[in-house]
Amino acid sequence: MKIKSVLKRALPLAALGLLLLPSAPASAATYEHGPWYSADSAPHEGTVYVHENGDIVKLCDTKSDAYHAKAYVYTGPTDNLQQVYWFTNWYNDGKCSYAKASNGGDENLQEGKKYYVQICREENGGTQFEDKCTSYTHYWFLNDN
Asked: Which CATH number does the domain housing residue 80 bear?
C-alpha cells in the first residue's frame, strides 16, 4: 500500500520535471575565459569570450551605435607581441561574431602557447583594415586544450 502512495506523489513531480527539462537553456560551448571588455568605452560595449577546445573566440558588440567591435589575437613575449589574426563584428546590434579553428589558417591556434587578446571599438564608416583601436589592454590565455 505504501508503494502506491509514494508513486501517486512521485509521478506528478516526475512529469513536471520532464515538462520543464526542454525549457532549460542549451549551451554549445562553455567559455573558460571572459567576459573580457573593451577598455576604450564606458560602458564596455565590446566583449570577448574564449573557449580553448576548438580555439573559439567570440566577439560581441553589445550596443547598437556608430561603432563596431574588433578583436586582435597576438602571441609572443609581452615586449614584442606578434599579431596572429584579427576580426571584426560588423553587426552593431548586440550579435556576436566568431573566429575558430575550424575556419582554418591563423585561427587554428597552436596548443600549449600563450595568446593575448585586445578588444576595442572602432567608428563605422572606415575600412576594416584601418587600425583605430585605442584600447591597449591585453587579456591572455594559455591554449592548452
From this structure: 2.60.40
